[in-house]
Amino acid sequence: MSKTPITVAYGDGIGPEIMKATLRVLEAASARLAPEVIEIGEKVYLAGNNSGIGSAAWESLRRTRVFLKAPITTPQGNGYKSLNVSTRKALGLYANVRPCLAYAPFVPTRHPAMDVVIVRENEEDLYAGIEHRQTDEVYQCLKLITRPGCERIVRYAFEYARRQGRKRVTCFVKDNIMKLTDGLFHRVFDEIGAEYPDIVRDSMIVDIGAARLADTPERFDVIVMPNLYGDILSDVAAQIAGSVGMAGSANIGDQCAMFEAIHGSAPDIAGQDLANPSGLLNGAVQMLLHVGQADVAERVHNAWLRTLEEGLHTADIYRDGQSYARLGTQDFADAVIARLGKKPEVLKAVSYTEQAPLVLPTPVRQAPLHKQLVGVDVFLQWREGKPEQLGPQLQAVAAPDLPLHLITNRGVKVWPQGFPETFCVDHWRCRFTATAGTLCFKEVLALQERLHAEGFDVVKTENLYTFDGAPGYAAVHG
Ligand code: NAD
User: Fold this and answer.
1) Which CATH number do you get for residue 48?
2) How many domains does the chain have?
């Protein structure tokens, strides 16, 4: 049978050890793979490539479209771009799937019935990488949430749940605060979820959701969330299931996919044959399913479960009295290899059937709405006084049909009728709204010119639009 080409990176820290162990298990299980090895990570960064990956590596990834990646170390310091974030974005890997499962009683956990899959949006949110320093005192990071991005990840979560026979999909958002961005995620979740009547759907504010996940994870099934919440909570979920060393993850796109462990390069234990290769091995099992080798995935997964339940453990999960032997990385791989063909007797054996990779329809772009410019938020750096002085100065510059409506500082209204107690920094959002309900962009430019001529330091503007009459901007606190 023909072999599937895959791209392999050994990574940094414990990466080479766990990759070696994983590839040995795959080979012994007769995986039909043709690995192409690429160099990425610390060495590439330190050689002067600030993205940690060179053009030959990209070519291999574009050719094979399947990437088995060990963790890498991003050197400290400014100027080094995260290889993980670049790879996800460049290859369009929009869905990050992290199954977090308890293996009690063989791996200690307070949550023996836990079996949660976190589906994390992988490209957007605060990870868009658009950050600016705007004033002496204020820095900003843009949180971008798009409708097509929400549609893809939410549909992926429901399709995944249906295919895996899971019963519930929960959405975590913070739309009580971020009404437009997280509000969109929530709305799309409800719209698309309605197409899956066979799957229970519910949503939670991320803070209480996170607390419940940490307390009673067995109550959850599949959880879908925006990038940042998913990043944090999938580590929490993996850790409370037993160990971050155990969980693997799949990063899925329309054309490419990347499989890895969720943990990092663990430099504290590198080179000592101590690392648990299970996270990467579990990532590799997901890869085998993705490339249509369910038979091999099942053999490897069941042998691994059998190894765990025989008490053959690496140091991170070894417990005196509970484990049978403490094994190094390579001996653990040998133990799995020796059990290929066996099934677990206590833990539930897996049974995989051949399934084509999930390919979702491209989100349908909506027809453009009627968009009207109704005002502008002008951001100023200003430290010459108090808001009750700034307000009248700006009013004097404003045009009669584009008056100053309010001023906020760190999102809190300080003019008109602010509270003297409000702590202010040097960054002021000054909202001008058109009296006629609509205005021409030239008036926005004219306002900026007048502000500049009067000596104001305009650091940024944000146009205020309505879309089919609905405001495209958040209401103001205070
Ligand atoms: P880490 O996950 O590497 O380590 C956290 C702790 O868990 C350490 O005590 C480590 O020894 C332990 N640990 C992790 N994996 C283990 C395993 N397989 N077996 C046994 N113990 C294990 O996190 P960190 O220390 O915060 O980060 C170290 C480096 O990894 C950083 O440079 C970071 O940027 C990088 N990192 C890379 C990735 C990736 O490539 N996907 C992900 C996260 C962090």
Assistant:
1) 3.40.718.10
2) 3
